[in-house]
Amino acid sequence: MLEAHARAGIRNRLLHKISLEDWDYIGPHLEAVTLKERQVIEVPGKPITHAYFLEIGVASVVAVDAEDHRIEVGVIGYEGVTGVPLILGDTRAQHSTYMQIGGSGHRIPQEVLCGAIAKSDGLRSLFQKSAQGFMIQISHTALANGRAKLEQRLARWLLMAHDRTTSDAVPLTHEFLAVMLGVRRAGVTVAIHGFERKGLVTTRRGQLTIVNRTGIEQVAGSFYGTPEAELKRLLEGK
Amino acid sequence: MLEAHARAGIRNRLLHKISLEDWDYIGPHLEAVTLKERQVIEVPGKPITHAYFLEIGVASVVAVDAEDHRIEVGVIGYEGVTGVPLILGDTRAQHSTYMQIGGSGHRIPQEVLCGAIAKSDGLRSLFQKSAQGFMIQISHTALANGRAKLEQRLARWLLMAHDRTTSDAVPLTHEFLAVMLGVRRAGVTVAIHGFERKGLVTTRRGQLTIVNRTGIEQVAGSFYGTPEAELKRLLEGK
DNA sequence: CTCAACAGGTACGTTTCCGTACTGAAATTT
DNA sequence: AAATTTCAGTACGGAAACGTACCTGTTGAG
Fold first, then answer.
1. Which listed site, A3, A167, A170, B165, has its alpha carbon 20 to 30 Å from B24?
2. B16 and B78 in contact (C-beta within 8 Å)?
3. A102 CA – D14 C1', rounded, Å
4. A–B: how many Cβ contacts below 8 A?
């Protein structure tokens, strides 16, 4: 539970944007949680019990089909909230959501969030903008998946993760990067070597550190950036 | 403009689901329109002036980035409505939307739709479910783009188009199919030959006819079907 | 009727990425 | 400390799709 005066310490962009009068709907119902890597947030087909406002860490949203093909369609960090379907009135999870990079956050029960959105136009508007931003992110994942090279997609992913972490270290194995991008593990290894050779990252077993972010942005080109700019427009802009 | 008694002739699933009391918000403001192929519905970065409830035809929603990479992320037909961002409180178009297969429908001005959604919980709920369904479609486009072979993606596209047309004929050139799938025109030609050889489709210049839908479904496998089933659950189901 | 534009068939070398698999090094467990 | 598991490096043949280009038949415009 968080009192109004405790909001100063909050990093989550959505919680930050909640107005004082709306805070009573949300704040008192938040439960601080530690989120370990690989921790499951949502399971496809199962009800969504809580929405998670992340502070630190990165959650992966993964689309799965009946033959178990899977690929990451989006990531969520301190800029957003999990449980996007709740915002649209659906309590069933469609995607698999889990922590890709461990961290922490605050969670709120599904009924409380839905009730709050129903009662406050301000909250609904805020969360809808967040949902819209996430939808744009998914669209651009579709674009990158269809058009970009492995190297560019990897760069895009690293940038999105970097945006959402506090350090330059990305604690992930090649294996998990491969699963998210929907490519071979060996392919990721080779691509990372390329990044290392160019001085963009350094690596240790199970970890990768971003050294030259600008260089990575150049690799990603315009496959990175649009969803980020649009989210900013939606949340900050007029 | 459509009077309440005229709804019987309507094919659009969303208009159909509008309750009698909510109809006054929408029906009187509908303008019947013919929609020719290639007709532009939304331009990225520009305001969305109208939402289009399609009766016949297929609209393509195409993601574009700063370097003009583009790929279709979703299609809309009689089951839905264009202008999904409006439902989420954004009046700016993010994607390029245009008619891929000509047809007809009814359009409603942006302000009227937004106002109606603000006033009626029933309408908001309905349109939000539609938006949620569309989001699932985009996710699965991302999945197919990342994981499926050209042949499977083509099959998926044909099935989605077929779902939304009244005849088995799909009036499209290889060139446009290629643009939507984000592949070479020549690649589409070869894939279609494969379909022809298997007796799944027949072709004429600028047109393709679906002969064996079940066969095409087998090619697409589980890359097709999930969004369709989920939309049904959202709109029909409990 | 002629001509230009368009749709589609085909080809070829090349790039990208896959499937698979073996290896050694690092970390974790016993 | 030894055994086991996990992670990363590397290799190789092959599939898929690309970029490009050329050619032919159809269609629509003048």
1. B165
2. no
3. 39
4. 121
